[in-house]
Each structure stands twice: as structure tokens, then as C-alpha cells.
């Protein structure tokens, strides 16, 4: 491998520099990296191209999850830098979540030199087959002349109508190739987000004719503007409002209306939607999370579904236009910011939700993974100060800590919390190290119940006993108990334990008094 | 989801029970599991079908790597149990290594109910696209009637001529379906391993005509029997012997000949093979690990390569037949077991290799990941007592600890060591917890140099400076330093630190005095 640097004598640049410059000039200025040998020219270019921040992850799922969190908050892509097929594969689970969140990501994967692939060397792998399921766009750069345009095309695709992960494979020889004349700057064209006025008219007619309706909200409908418009519509028409169950991003608190999430389990979700037209505002048609015997997969009949705005549309603007069109009064009443009274005692999930809601400073971001404390927190958080929640959109666990990491990189002026179940935290536990390395003041709250709660719930639903030997062994995490304080210290993160309401409250106050790095609180749940 | 148990009144069994019984009856009796909701009927069946040991991993890469280590030692497949496409994807890196090792694995992946896939629910994923690159065989069970035969076909494929990973997808409705009449027992047919006598004749003619030759050995050639036969051939003909660079499994020490590994870097590998015929005995034709400018990808010219035995052949028997055919004397001299004299002082990689070689009890297994100490250990280990080494066959890092875990499950009577670099250990660090849970007496030696050594080496090779800001940040792991003792305690594993030869020697003695669970030794390298 012969990796040229910027050669000032001859005026050449490396292929990697061209990719980096093109990305940076399109606004992509963060790279979450776990490079290997085939990415070394790209690493070298990070030292010659100014303006791109590189952040190392010890595991690829940390990088891809961080890029997801970053993209949700920044509204533009971060780069990843992954090592061939196996490195990419380690990032697939969180790319799957990013795909469901429609998060723009420029997913850069290094590969062997082009002429080495035919030898089927140990690390040779079918990157395309591994990448297609999570990518809206895939290309392996074939020629030196395409480096800039392929990069621009990737960013355009990530920001396009099918927003999501664009996977750009860079053979190492094209990273290191010396290029004399760079192509003229490649053009990135993000899709413009708009909405369809004819749909607004149809939904208005429906509501004005007295149909009972549910507004099912996702995407930009869950911005503050979208929620206020939805509340106006609800007040004027009696429609109910639900967020999709796992929104990529939703604003909460600070006087916004309390828009609940559509229930996860099918029975209450069916009840919430029964006998109503379901107006989709940036959300997909609701289906059950899993297939359950005797329960329809579609939570609403297709003939009851009405499209107001697609997930990629400006659903907030569509809701405003709808509210105006039906003559809804201009101010909807939101929920006042108010502290919860929480009695001192053991840490129940409900108490955790309320204590955290009380503790949030203005403009906090809360990455939520796991149902144990996640649901009670969202129930409590309508009363909190204004904040943003980020949830697990695709069900691939190990998402919460990396997403918090990426959000903290995107928003250095906001405090970031990770409300995280213990089982799912383990999949990308290495995120702690990067948080410490980057001095990111993230507060992690680990809900330590030492079991896979969702599996025990699903076992019970299915009539299977959870206390038989194998089922127990595969759903319990108590032998040995994970020592979260030790783990956290192992990665350089200060940690403490809280078993009571008062202890958690004090631990949160102590954590918020510092902004010099991450803090972890193990919550021992009752 | 409605999951029937074995119903003694009606004589029905669940589909999952049929899969489990078929696997168990074919000798597959260990399941490395990280299940989710769609695998709950399978979990339930583990409580009704006797004779399958289930072992929980906190991350899928732990499960697949453990299945690789198990299969290499047991010579038969373990099952994995993974959760849809994203769970499978987390296991892909170590399945990639298993594919290169030709390790038989029955890779079971749960999926949605068949009629739920059309709704594209959050966890719906293209499992086939994610699985094909690492699987020699792939099938999603389509019908109740196929459960037993598909399972048997999967095991036959895993043990077939194209030995490797067989991926069997089980929709959850087919796991829970009640089956009245089980099909007659499905038949598993592993491929018989043999060799081609005509090839033996051709190689014998070559050697007897005085051609200089290298025996390049892999697969069964690296058994004790194969190595002894190779040494006879070498003594009789002047041929040199090399192991492939990253063997799945090789016997070492205990009086065996010292057969070195073909060098990793291309220049010394080319020198080792220059001007010789390359006789392949269970190894693939040698190619460079990566593509390097100005260096051929093929380390030997195709016209110089002679096939004695394919990777799936009985290469040890072929070598014996060859030794007999050329009239090589019956006893080749091996290396005597002898302790290295190691002076007290700081821990250099060479000292680590020798101290560990001295400490190995008879029939130890050493899982090696990372070059820093791996190469010096293999150099030293020819003098050790008889042991087996397992190496990283596919280059996807995060392999060493899970492989040690699986080997310990396969061989409870043997002591297992993991000689492991710190950077690669992080990818599947959760393996520690399963080792503690299963009370496996594995001794982990973490080579803590707080950097990605291989990346700094490759940067230096390519003429790029490793001390520029970004290159440093992406190859150094010293900020914060990972506290291995704390991490280890976090997962319930006793740990200590060694910075000198004497301290390491004492720590190894102390670890070997216990057989009640894993021990970790952080080796602070000089």
C-alpha cells in the first residue's frame, strides 16, 4: 500500500482527500470511525483535510448508532468509517434502526484494492449483500474520476426523498490514488420537504363531516409546531392524537400538548384506533410489532386510513394548513410545566420517570431504550421542561447509548440523558469509552433489573412459564450480577448507584453539576 | 403468539421441539443463544426437550464466536439462536471467521410469523441477504412438514463437503405450531473425508525428481499425525514446511516438529516460497492478506502450485501416504519439551510468549487473537507441552474470547487460555460474563498496549506518519486508559495485573490453581 499525502510539489491529492473534501463541503463534518488497515489512507487524509472531526469507537455499532443520533439531531449526515464486510456487519443493527428512523448517514466502508478481490483473501466479503438491507443507496467506487461525484451522490441519496443510509464503498487503492486535477465540485441536492394541499382538503372534508378520527403522528409532525397544530385540530374536532410508538425524534414538555405514543401491545393499540378514521401525519400505517395469533397485523383497516402527509413530507406544515383550513382556534392548551411530587421510597419505574422528568433542564435530549422505565418516563415527561426524546425505531437493541453519544456531538449546548435498560445496554457498552474520551457530559441512567423484561413479558403472554430452568437461564441476568459501577470505571466514566427516590434525585443533581464528561447512575429497581 | 408445549393429552409437539430433537439426535447438543421475542417458542422447547445445553450470550458475536470455537474443537456443530436480521447481523463478523475456518455451525435465526412479513414491521429485515455471505447453506422453513428435514439438511450441509455455517430461519409461527405426527427421523449425512491417491503419486514424483518444495499445511494436515508425516517428508527430501498463516486449529508442542506459520507480511512470505514448488496439504493457494502496490497478490505462481489435499480432505492421511510412498524413514525428530529461561524484567512480547509456553499444562488450548503477543508465543510454543492453538481465520476481530469460551464448553477436561490483544478484545467483551456464568476455567491474558498496533504498523508501512493528530486519535487507546481489572470485575471475573516476568508467571500459577471459573490477567507490556 502506497499512500500519497497532499503533495505540494506536484499539486496532487489523494482519493481519500477528495471524498473527505466533497463531504465536508456538503456539510458532513463528523466521522464516527472504527478503521482497519484498508481505511488507513482515509485516516491519513483526516490529517490533511481540515474541518472534519473524527471520533473513534471501539466497536462499529457504537459508530453507526452515534451517526444515527447525530443525524436525528443535526438534520444532516455524519460519516461512519468501517472496515470491510465484517466491520460493516457489526454496524448493521444500528443502521437498521437508522433506516427505520430515516436518518441520513454517509456510511463509508473501506475495501481491498480492486485487483485483490479476485483472490478471496481472508477479509474478502460480499459487502453489497450485507449493506443493501439497511441502505437506501449503495455504490462501490469504480474509478478515480468518480470519487467526488459518487460521494456527492451518496450524500444526495442520504438526504433524498428516501432519506436514510447511503453506503459508499472505497477500495483502498482509490483512497490512496494520486489525483492531479480534481473534478469540479460535485453537487449535493437534498430533497425539498413539502406537503400535498389536496390531501389537506380531503382530510379537512373528512373532519368537518363529523368523522371520528385519530391523528397518527411521526416525522416532522412531532416537532413543536406539528404538535401544536395537531392539538388545535383535536380541540376543534374531537380527534385524538397519537405519536407513532417509536418515534425517531419527538419534542416533549415545555407547555406542549401531551401526545401519547400508540401503545406497543396490540390489544390497547387496537382499542385506541377502533371505530375511527386514522389520519397519517408523517407516520406509516400502523401494524403490530410482532405477529400474534388471532390478532390482525394491521391495526387499522386500509379503508379507514387517510394520508395527510408521508414520512418524508413537511407534516408539521400540513397539520398547520389543516388546522387553518378547518378554522381551528389559534391557541391549543398545552400541559403546564410542573414538578411531580414523588414520595421518598424504593425506585419503582414510575418514580424513575417522575424524578427524571423533574430533573430535566431546558432543552435536554433523552435517548430512551427499553420499556421498563421508558414508558413511565414518557408518561411523566409531558410536565417536564422542553426536551427532545429519541427512541429505538427499529427494535435492534444496543441503540440507546450510541444515539445519546451522537446527539451530544450534534448538540454540545444541550444536556443529553440516556434512559437505558441494562440488557440492551450491553450490546454497545463500548460507547462509554468514547463518551469519556470526547468529554461528553451525558448522564446515563441504567435501569438495572437484571433480566430481559420484555422476554419474560412475552413468555407470559404466550402462556409459557418463565421460571422453568432454560427459560429462566435465558431471560435472567443475575448470575453473575453485572457490576455497573465497575464496568463504568473500566471505561473511565464516573458512576454511582441509586436505590431510592432521594438517592436518584441527588445523583442527578450531582451529575448535572458537572459538564466535563459522562456520568453513569445505576438505578437498582424495586 | 400462542406457544403450545408438549401436550401429553393429545400427543402433539411444538415445531421448535421437532427442530431441537432432530438436532439433538444428530449430536448437536449445545445452543449459544441470544434470543428475542420471536425465539420464545424455541426457548420454551429447551425446557421440554432434554439433552441440549443452552448458554446465554449478552451479544450475538459472543454466541457465534463461541459456536466457532466449539465446532473447531468438537468437530461437530453447535447451534446458535439469534433474533431476526439485526441479531444475526451482530453475529456476522464471527460467522465470517467460522466460514474461513470451515467450522460447522447450525445457525438458527428466528423470524416473524410468515404472514407478518408483508407488513414490514420495525424488525422486519432481509435475513437472507445478511446471511448468504457467511453461509454455505441457507433456508427459511416454509412448511410445518419440512421442520425435521430442513433441520437435518442444515446439519448435513454444515458437515458437508463445503463445511461451514448453515443458516436455518425459523418463523415463529412454525416454532409454535402444534404437530401431531412427527415425520420419521430425518437423516443427517456428513461428508466423508478422504484423499486422492493420484495426487499423492504426482507429488511423490515431484519430490523424488529433486524439486525443491514447500509443504503448505492447513486443515487436518495440522493434526499431530499430519505434522509428523510432514516432518518425515521434510527430513527425507529437504522440503520446508509451513502452516497456513491463520490456521483454524493446529497442534503444537509435546514433541511435535516446529512447523512455523507462513509469514503475515508479503515480503518474507514471498521469500519463504521463492523458487520452490508449493505443495498444498489442506491449505488454500497462498495470497497476500491485503493488496499492496507493487507486490503480487499471489504469493506463489499458479504453475508452481501442486495440490496434494484440499482443505476438506483427510490431509493428514494424504501426508502419511506420501511419506510412505517416498520411503521416508518412520520417525521424524520433533522438538523436545523444554522450559525457556526467562530473565526477570519488564514484560516484552517475547517474554510473554515464553512465560506462557512454560506455563501450559498438558493438552491446553490457546485461542490467539492479535499479533503483538501472538507471534512471539507461537515461536516459543514449539517447546511447550502438547497443546492446540486456535487463530483468527477471517480477520474479523473480536474472535479470540468467544472462541476460547466455545472451546472450553467443548473440552471441559482441558485448560483453555485466551492470548488476546486489548483492542480486539473490546468487540466481544461481553464474553467475560458468559465465562463467569458458566464457571469456565479460562485464563485470559490481555496484552494491554493501549493502541491498535497493527494499524500503526500499516501506517508506517505506507509512509504515513502515525503521530499526526487524527491518525493518533484513531490508533491510540490510551485516553482514557481502559481499566481491565475494573471491566473484568464488572462481569464477575477475577482479575489481576502483571507488569513483570515474575508477576506474570505467578499470576499464571495462581490462575491455574483454580478451576472454578475464569481469571483475567492484564499484561502491561513494555
Automatic annotation (TrEMBL), chains A, B:
Domain Thiamine pyrophosphate enzyme N-terminal TPP-binding: 14-118
Residues of the Thiamine pyrophosphate enzyme TPP-binding domain: 382-522
Keywords associated with the record: Thiamine pyrophosphate
SUPFAM superfamilies, alphabetized: DHS-like NAD/FAD-binding domain, Thiamin diphosphate-binding fold (THDP-binding)
Pfam families named among the record's database cross-references: TPP_enzyme_C, TPP_enzyme_N
Protein's UniProt keywords contain Transmembrane: no
InterPro entries the record matches: DHS-like_NAD/FAD-binding_dom (IPR029035), THDP-binding (IPR029061), Thiamin_PyroP_enz_TPP-bd_dom (IPR012001), TPP_enz (IPR045229), TPP_enzyme_TPP-bd (IPR011766)
Protein's UniProt keywords contain Mitochondrion: no
Family classification: Belongs to the TPP enzyme family.
Official protein name in the record: Acetolactate synthase large subunit
Source organism of the structure: Burkholderia theae
Amino acid at each position: 500500500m502506497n499512500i500519497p499525502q497532499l503533495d505540494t510539489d506536484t499539486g496532487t491529492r489523494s482519493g481519500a482527500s477528495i471524498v473527505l473534501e466533497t463531504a465536508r463541503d456538503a456539510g458532513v463534518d463528523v466521522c464516527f470511525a472504527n478503521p482497519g488497515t484498508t481505511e488507513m489512507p482515509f485516516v491519513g487524509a483526516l490529517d490533511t483535510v481540515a474541518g472534519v472531526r473524527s471520533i473513534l469507537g471501539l466497536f462499529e455499532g457504537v459508530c453507526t448508532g452515534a451517526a444515527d443520533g447525530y443525524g436525528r439531531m443535526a438534520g444532516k449526515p455524519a460519516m461512519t468509517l468501517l472496515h470491510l464486510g465484517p466491520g460493516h456487519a457489526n454496524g448493521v443493527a444500528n443502521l437498521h434502526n437508522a433506516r427505520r428512523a430515516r436518518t441520513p448517514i454517509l456510511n463509508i466502508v473501506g475495501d481491498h484494492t480492486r485487483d485483490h478481490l479476485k483472490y478471496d483473501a481472508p477479509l474478502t466479503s460480499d459487502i453489497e449483500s450485507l449493506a443493501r438491507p439497511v441502505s437506501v443507496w449503495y455504490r462501490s467506487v469504480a474509478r478515480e474520476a468518480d470519487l467526488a461525484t459518487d460521494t456527492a451522490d451518496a450524500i444526495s441519496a442520504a438526504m433524498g426523498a428516501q432519506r436514510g443510509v447511503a453506503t459508499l464503498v472505497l477500495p483502498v487503492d482509490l483512497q490512496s490514488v494520486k489525483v492531479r486535477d480534481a473534478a469540479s465540485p460535485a453537487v449535493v441536492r437534498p430533497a425539498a420537504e413539502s406537503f400535498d394541499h389536496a390531501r389537506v382538503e380531503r382530510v379537512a372534508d373528512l373532519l368537518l363531516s363529523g368523522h371520528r378520527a385519530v391523528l397518527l403522528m411521526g416525522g416532522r409532525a412531532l416537532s413543536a409546531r406539528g404538535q401544536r397544530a395537531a392539538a388545535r385540530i383535536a380541540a376543534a374536532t374531537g380527534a385524538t392524537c397519537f405519536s407513532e410508538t417509536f418515534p425517531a425524534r419527538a419534542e416533549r414538555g415545555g407547555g406542549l400538548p401531551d401526545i401519547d405514543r400508540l401503545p406497543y401491545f396490540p390489544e390497547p393499540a387496537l382499542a385506541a384506533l377502533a371505530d375511527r378514521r386514522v389520519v397519517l401525519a408523517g407516520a406509516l400505517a400502523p401494524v403490530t410489532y410482532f405477529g400474534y395469533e388471532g390478532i390482525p397485523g394491521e391495526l387499522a383497516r386500509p379503508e379507514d386510513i387517510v394520508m395527510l402527509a408521508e414520512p418524508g413530507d413537511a407534516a408539521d406544515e400540513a397539520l398547520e394548513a389543516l388546522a387553518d383550513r378547518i378554522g381551528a382556534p389559534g391557541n391549543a392548551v398545552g400541559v403546564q410545566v410542573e414538578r411531580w411530587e414523588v414520595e421518598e421510597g424504593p425506585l419503582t419505574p414510575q418514580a424513575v420517570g417522575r424524578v427524571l422528568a423533574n430533573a430535566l433542564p431546558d432543552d435536554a435530549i433523552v435517548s430512551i431504550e427499553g420499556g421498563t422505565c421508558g414508558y413511565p418516563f414518557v408518561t411523566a415527561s409531558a410536565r417536564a421542561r422542553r426536551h427532545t426524546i429519541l427512541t429505538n425505531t427499529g427494535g435492534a437493541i444496543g441503540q440507546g447509548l450510541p444515539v445519546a453519544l451522537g446527539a451530544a456531538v450534534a448538540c454540545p449546548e444541550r444536556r443529553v440523558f440516556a434512559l437505558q435498560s441494562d440488557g440492551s445496554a450491553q450490546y454497545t457498552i463500548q460507547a462509554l469509552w468514547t463518551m469519556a474520551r470526547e468529554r461528553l457530559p451525558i448522564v446515563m441512567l441504567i435501569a438495572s433489573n437484571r433480566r430481559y423484561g420484555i422476554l419474560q413479558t412475552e413468555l407470559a403472554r404466550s402462556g409459557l412459564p418463565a421460571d422453568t430452568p432454560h427459560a429462566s437461564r435465558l431471560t435472567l441476568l443475575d448470575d453473575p450480577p453485572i457490576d455497573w459501577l465497575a464496568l463504568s470505571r473500566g471505561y473511565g466514566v464516573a458512576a454511582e448507584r441509586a436505590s431510592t427516590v432521594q438517592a436518584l434525585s441527588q445523583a442527578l443533581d450531582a451529575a448535572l453539576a458537572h459538564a466535563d464528561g459522562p456520568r453513569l447512575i445505576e438505578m437498582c429497581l424495586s
